Amino acid sequence: LLLSMFRYSTATTATGFDYGEALNKSLLFLEAQRSGKLPTNDKRVAWRGDSGLKDGYLQGVDMVGGYYDAGDHVKFGLPMAYSVTMLSWGAIQFKKEITELNQMGRMLWAIRWAYVLWAQVGDGNSDHYCWERAEDMTTPRDAYKIDANHPGSDVAGETAAALASAAIAFQSYNSSYSNLLLVHAKQLFSFADKFRGLYDDSIPSAKQFYTSSGYWDELLWAAAWLFQATNDEYYLKYVVDNAMYFGGTGWAVKEFSWDNKYAGVQILLSKVPLEGKGGAYTNILKQYQAKANYFSCACLQKNDGYNVYKTPGGLVYVREWNNMQYVSSAAFLLAVYSDYLSAANAKFTCPSGGLVQPQELLKFAKSQADYILGKNPKSMSYLVGYGPKYPTHVHHRGASIASIYVLHSAVQCVQGFETWYHRSERDPNVIYGALVGGPDKNDDFSDDRSSYEETEPTLSGTAPLVGLFSKLQDANGISGAQFIQHKTTGARPSNNTKKSEIEKILQKSLKMLRVLASKHAQSAPIEFLHSITSTWTTQEMTHYKHKVIIKNTSGKPITDLKLAIEDLTGPLWGLSPTNKKNIYELPQWQNVLNPGSQCVFVYIQGGPQAKVSVLSWK
């Protein structure tokens, strides 16, 4: 029996690690964590089945989908939204690298799968009393929301950041969906800012598992991402006006996580002055950047004693429970900052150790990734399924219990503990790409299912790895052209995986959503309906047939309509070209577009859709 997977033809790089393989397996972990109705045509985690199909039923809303948080079956909104922001940031900053690895389609699909816009589904206490497969769940699936009377600025702010960053990631692939995400991001940010409060005060059941330390950082985080997505000065002014009061330029931190976003805010906002776009706000933005340098120096052990703690083996160590999530986040963040500095040909100085070049930040990120993959005192990969030696007793319900396709009878709550949790044998299902909690502060590790601090994986731990591994694979000079398909043993045969990942994400996400033309959006009396009607593959190139409906939304006839169509790489029908490059007009037989009427044009190309905008009209 076979499960389709991907790797590079060169199994190892010059450093001994194949980051492309590690990236692919990280995406597999996200697929293993999916809740809801699973795809039938591209199901790579063969031992998983449908689950949580009635989530939201009692509340009268559709809450099906999203991700299970860790080794349990609760969908916690705060870490899930943070994980989406990390995936989206990776897709934005390392777009070229991920695309060359042929993984952008799966990346976008992973982002889209997350959108369950309530604060929590499932109860952590009752869930943790049971050890059962997601497909057999008998625990309550209560859903919890925030509103004006029960605020949650932290979870709403983080979700706004996730939506805004995802809007950027999707922009060149599905502009309709991107615009919809941005609308919701703005709404959520306004709600988070207007109705302030901690989400775990409104949802007490979350407090035991994901206690929030505050929401000022999430408000800054959301505004920073909205500025990136919109270039609207309102959001930049927000982070500047609230820089001191909210702690953005006051807090000097040594961690970046689902709870503490300050380092992320500081590095994201550093991009603005580095690009020379700070304008009147440059002085305050440079204060944010000073704190970004503090975090970087602390990671590099050059902060005059105020450093991040490292184990004897060189691993960043922040907390006892699931420490690897802090490792992956810090490594990802410094890889991003390295890119920002390199693009600006900039460097900075640490209190001890002198001048820091961008490459030194990437070297730190690589050291943490290499520790994860096996360059450590235990010579063990802490990414499950990677390398010859990795954890085989993962604190994960689905991995530790035989698949529903092997054991057809339901595994009940207590039975799971008695029969499966305490068994000494290795997990029956390999949960590829799961980043476990990792070793303690002395580099010691216990591959024991009951040692949840060390063997439980989380979304927030794995999500930053996708972008990080893509950057490191590119830095090693391994290109996407070497990407090949091979087979490995698994639980069930997979379906055809030859279709382009981009095709699949577009088939999933493209809907007939109305979008205004990007130019003259406020005044042009035109609406576009942009959809994909068919796809096909020839000589490993996937082609898309795009259909665009042009509709007159004014009360007057429109004549002499001129459209600008950018990034068009294939043939087009239904419009007439003008004597100017990339400018088209309606055909002569339809030179007038009457009120409420519409016309259609079609074009074919591979990759992202073309950019259509109104240039002029009469």
From TrEMBL:
The keyword Hydrolase applies. One of its GO terms (molecular function) is cellulase activity. The active site is at residue 395. The keyword GTP-binding does not apply. Keywords: Carbohydrate metabolism, Cellulose degradation, Glycoprotein, Glycosidase, Hydrolase, Polysaccharide degradation, Signal. GO terms for biological process: cellulose catabolic process. It holds the Pfam family CBM49. Belongs to the glycosyl hydrolase 9 (cellulase E) family. It catalyses: Endohydrolysis of (1->4)-beta-D-glucosidic linkages in cellulose, lichenin and cereal beta-D-glucans. Its EC number is 3.2.1.4. InterPro entries: CBM_49 (IPR019028), Glyco_hydro_9 (IPR001701), Glyco_hydro_9_His_AS (IPR018221). This is cellulase. It is an enzyme of class 3 (hydrolase). Residues 526-606 form the Carbohydrate binding domain. It comes from the Eukaryota.
